[in-house]
Amino acid sequence: MFQAAQQSLIDHYINLPKQTLREFWTTAKIRHIRRLAESGRANRVWTPEDELSKRPLDRLRFKPINESNIRLEVDTTTDIGGGITLSTPLYLGDMSFGSLSGTANIAIAMAAELTETLAGTGEGGLHPEVAKVRRIAVQWASARFGVDAKVLNRGLAVVIKIGQGAKPGIGGHLPAAKVTEPISMTRRIPLYKDAISPAPHHDIYSIEDLGQRIEAIKELTGKPVFVKVGATNYVQYIATGIARMGGDGIILDGAGAGTGAAPTVVRDNIGIPIEIAVASVDRILRREGLRENFTVIAGGRVSNPEDAAKLMALGADCVSVGTAALIALGCVMCHKCHLGYCPALLTNKALPNPPRMLSLDWAVQRLVNFVKGWNEELKLIVGTLGLRRVRELVGRRDLLEAYSMWEETASILGVNLVSGCSTPLVAGEGGYWSERRRTHLTALAENGVPEIGSMGSCGPPFVEPPKAVCDYLVSDGAQVTRPSIDPYREEIEIASYLSGIRLSAPIFFSHFKSLPKGLVELFAKVAKAHGLMMYTTLDEYDDHLAKYAGNLMLAVDDPMSIPENVGVVVIDAWRESKPFRENVPDKPLYVRIHSSEQSLTSIQELARRGFDGIIIDTDLTYSPATLDVAVMTAEADWSLREVFYGGSPVRNQLNLLCGGSAIRGADDIFKLLCLGADAVGLNRAALVAIGYEEGKDMNLHEARVKLENFILGLKGEIRLLAGAAGVSSIYTSLVGNRELLRSVDLDPAIRSRLKVKAAGT
Amino acid sequence: MKDGCGVFGILRKKSATKISNLAPLKAIDCVKFRGSKLGAGFASFDIPGGGRPPIRVKIFVDNAETLSFVRRIFAGHVKSLRLNMLGEKVPEFDGEGFKVYEVFIEASPSTLQSIVDQLNVRLMDENGIKGRCYSYGRYVNVFKDVGYPLDVAAKYGLDCDMMRSDAWLAHTRQPTNSPGTTPVWSHPFSAHEVAVVHNGDISSYGSNQQMLRLAGYRSFVGTDSEVIAFMLDYLVRVRGYTLEQALIILQNPYERVLNASPLRSEVMRLMAEARGCQLDGPFTVIAGYCDGEDIYLMALVDRSKFRPIVFGEDQNAIYVASEECQIRCLSPSAEVWTPEPGEIFLASLSKGVIYRGRP
After folding, report:
1. What is d(CA A751, CA A409) in angstroms, rounded to the nearest whole number?
2. CB contact under 8 A, B214 and A641
3. Burial of A585 (0-12, 13-18, 19+ CB in 10 A)
4. Do the domains at A8-51+67-394 and A496-758 have one common CATH topology?
5. Disulfide-capable partner of A167 in A53, A262, A506, B55 (CB 3.0 to 4.6 Å)?
């Protein structure tokens, strides 16, 4: 019913655009997939070095092989439970009708049928043509779009979608522009309105609830039920819960997985790499005696058959590919799916009579070839390893070895480390700012809402080079055991309190050096309007700023010169605090320090000197070396908590702030809060966001609009991260909550200073 | 919806007789479908007649070697004259599994805490779990193990009318963030004169555990429920808050609720003073506490009431449960009510219901 009679049918690949920014799906990776899809045959055994990325999976390799053991005949059939046998361990993963525009959905389903694999339908009802196909797994997601008993009874299996790798802890997003008539009808939702699925299933707040749904769906359909989750901090316990509740398998979706639309702050900062999740889930399932008859399907950046083989050796039974399948269909990785103008006609708007359409025959043929070629390459790998059946590869970590990796990461993966460690990070090396960050901040200032992006993350540390310790930290997405809190519909408190002063968000403006007067005043004005604070110095203080005195944290050096009404008085650590105290006994007195090892040694002494707050200013220069703000904040927080006064921890009366040009956005703010900061300051990020350039005049009105948008955007992003982690109050439950963070392949020496656990533990 | 573990609490009224162990068993067994075979337990609170009872310390031990280690620790403290040993119950090691070693002592709270820390830090490390000291109060007595409520009750002889107490807690567990394969993860969790049962999974766990660690708590089994017991103990015993204050701090009300409250400034002060003690995420907590003179039954629900809880009262007892049927099976005509999200419930043996959990 959605097909028109006469269209221009596209039946060829479009040329690959030059990739100007770092990308996981490099042109080399895309070309390899295209070759598979065109030839249907194996192209190689092992991945050439220039195709490897920086993720841990790419620092694993199969050990050298005894050539006399090579098998030519390999059986790749894979039983995934519930009587479903796949010709090769490949699941074509979960892309909805809506995110894709129809033809691609049909092509994927038909290719699964022809190649005897399985296609996940994704959230959001069934395309009528897809519904006719047998080898599909129908998804049951939090919004239940277009789901009824008839729909669930189609296909071979049902997938309960709890989360996905690109956005664990929040629900699916389909931007308004793509909710066209066919989508509106299939999903039974209003036309051209954002379709944002609830963050949790509102009838699944616990493992037992999930157990009841599994039971109910099995009763209704008699089909196997798989549960799809994003790879997060507790994924191993979620997996045991699913196994215990009678699920037939888990679909693990790792960080960096593709998506049709997701807030970029969530996509880039939540979730752990699939290789770590698979290793950890497999280990815990075995320990609990739950691994038998339970299927582990691994997805998220599975880019070639060697990735698949490694993930299987780490413990997966089968891999899921979404992005790779789209690339086989012609995706050129322009990251613009959410707009609905896909140049490859895959993720464009589903319209009843589009002038141009993907040729279904061509698309099916590409995907069938892709699966065949993939299978042939996988056979070569498995055969080369001396195995007769692909099944025998599952859990064979002993066949792998790790290199250029921290011992700790290798041991979490359960793989022997043969050489070297990861490159240690030098804080701030090469500047803190990447092009993507700049673009992101500008987008916030433009729109005032969290930025939406599509396809997999290109963020640090494995694609963009890491520039600060925060780049190695990921946050949690609450799934099943506790519900995430819907940031769009439920209450999330992000206010913070500094010495009794309420901040509407845990944000302040750090010191702006040598900024035009008008702009400084603008920042103060916006701080006041938004209930935030600004940190500045006395020599910038004038009659204009006096209007906003209550929102100022003012650095002074003379106790006699403190203006009235100023919110917080700030002094340098080497000054005698007593005269200041005596002069303004009622004002909070803060001390500013630089981010350095030396400052750390004097933190406890500062607490004993009775300051009300400590500001770590990353812009105060210090030699010999400044310390990464994450390490500084975490250690400062910890040592402050060790000081007690009258039986009560001094930390409870003393605020810890950090800020400066090292802070790059809401992700840094959120992570630093988890590491112990009460509020985080930024200056450079705000200037980047509003497009300030030194020496260039700024329209102050325009700047104000942008700045206010930027603040709103940051608040929105903090809310997203908090809600995804299941935190409803920043002030009471987030500050110092290191448990919500995990480090990915971070230098263990730094990790232990942060007191953050490693991903997978 | 089953939505989580089953919890139950009962407190007798001043005029009524003590409560048989069969009452909490019946009330928790009737929701055993909420749990799994991975843990159940009971806690009794009782003020016996005839003077202050000694401290009863209960420790899981996995074998005779661990047992002798535990006994050596106690003996060491006797020598340093900070502890009186008044008696012990030594288990037989026949077959698999943890056994309970029970010892009666007289010691100051700080000596007791340091023994418990010493024991627990050394009984549990990366090589595994050799045991756990899980109950150490004068008035509280915890019985817990792996299994359904009936299995656990049978193990301790609580499946027949054996023991009468002023108050009881009970729990049947569905593990969410720790394995449930040994009894150390079963509820109730207890510290000094506090015991709690919990249904939920708190997202503030990281802040809470960190606060406790720095307040001197040394050993954690790694579940969020245990830190709730420790925090209640810390707020009341160490920081000297009233139960009502401690409950408000733990419950962590919405700012908008506070803004409308006449107690706003008082509560804001408490929140700041006791940062890190607030709970977030879904929880229903039932707790018991005895100060030697009175016994308290308390309950907390999260801001959104993600987990179920109901209260009940008749002329003999006060009840807190996951489901109404748990109360009805003991008292068909009890008055039953539910709390508002984010409210606290407090009752005592001598005072009856103090906070009803709704305006």
Report:
1. 12
2. yes
3. exposed
4. yes
5. A262
What is the rounded distance in angstroms from the CA atom of residue A626 to the CA atom of residue A21?
29
Q: Reduce the secondary structure of A206-236 to three states and give it as a string.
A: CHHHHHHHHHHHHHHHCCCEEEEEECCCCHH
d(CA A612, CA A428): 30
Q: How many CB pairs under 8 A join A and B?
A: 145
| pLDDT tens by residue, B110-158 | 899 999 999 999 998 877 889 999 999 999 999 999 999 999 999 999 9
Cβ pair A642:B214 closer than 8 A: yes
A733/B252 Cβ within 8 A: yes
Each residue's pLDDT tens digit, A133-178 = 999 999 999 999 989 999 999 999 999 999 999 999 999 999 999 9
Q: Give the SS3 label for residue A131.
A: helix
Rounded CA-CA distance A722/A477 in Å is 9
Give the residue on A whose Cα is nearest the Cα of B222: A739
Taking alpha carbons only, the member of B84, B88, B79, B354 closest to residue B244 is B354
Domain ranges of chain B: 6-53+143-356, 57-137
Look up tokens 């010999």; give the residue.
A624
Q: Any chain B CB within 8 A of the CB of A568?
A: no
Minimal C-alpha gap between A197 and chain B (Å):
19
- Please give the backbone phi and psi of residue B138, each rounded to the nearest 5 degrees, phi first: -80, -35
The reply to whether A203 touches chain B by the CB within 8 Å rule is yes
CATH number for B6-53+143-356 (one of 3.90.700.10, 3.60.20.10, 3.40.50.970, 3.30.450.40): it is 3.60.20.10
CA atoms of A147 and A444, how far apart (whole Å):
35
- Cα separation, A159 vs A482, whole angstroms: 20
Fold of B57-137: Alpha-Beta Plaits (3.30.70)
Question: Where in B207-316 does DSSP place strands (E)?
Answer: 283-290, 295-301, 310-313
Sign of CA dihedral A176, A179, A180, A181: negative
pLDDT, one tens digit per residue, over A694-731 is: 888 889 999 999 999 999 999 999 999 999 999 999 99
CATH tag, A496-758: 3.20.20.70
> Which residues on adjacent β-strands are paired with residue A298?
A252, A319
Q: Which residues of chain B lie closer than 8 angstroms to A732, CB-CB?
A: 204, 207, 252, 271, 275, 278, 280
Per-domain residue ranges of chain A? 8-51+67-394, 496-758
What pLDDT, on a 0 to 100 scale, did the predictor assign at position B1?
46
Smallest Cα distance from A326 to chain B, Å: 36
Q: Is the dihedral of CA B216, B218, B224, B227 positive or negative?
A: negative
What is the pLDDT, as a whole number, of residue A427? 54
- By the CB < 8 Å criterion, does A407 face chain B? no
Nearest in space to A101 (alpha carbons), one of A343, A367, A362: A343
Q: For an interface test with A, which of B173, B267, B275 has the most A Cβ atoms less than 10 Å from its Cβ?
A: B275
> What does the mean pLDDT of chain A come to?
93
Contacts 24+ apart (CB under 8 A), A152-155: A152/A217, A152/A220, A152/A221, A153/A220, A153/A221, A153/A223, A154/A126, A155/A121, A155/A223
pLDDT tens column, B266-311: 888 888 888 889 999 889 999 999 999 999 999 999 988 888 999 9
Which CATH fold topology does A8-51+67-394 show? TIM Barrel (3.20.20)
Question: Taking residues A244-273, what's their average pLDDT?
Answer: 96
A671 versus B206: the higher-pLDDT residue is A671
What chain B residue is nearest to A481 in terms of C-alpha separation?
Answer: B176
Global ipTM: 0.82
Structure tokens, B225: 């429920």
Give the closest residue to A476 by CA, choosing from A133, A167, A171: A167
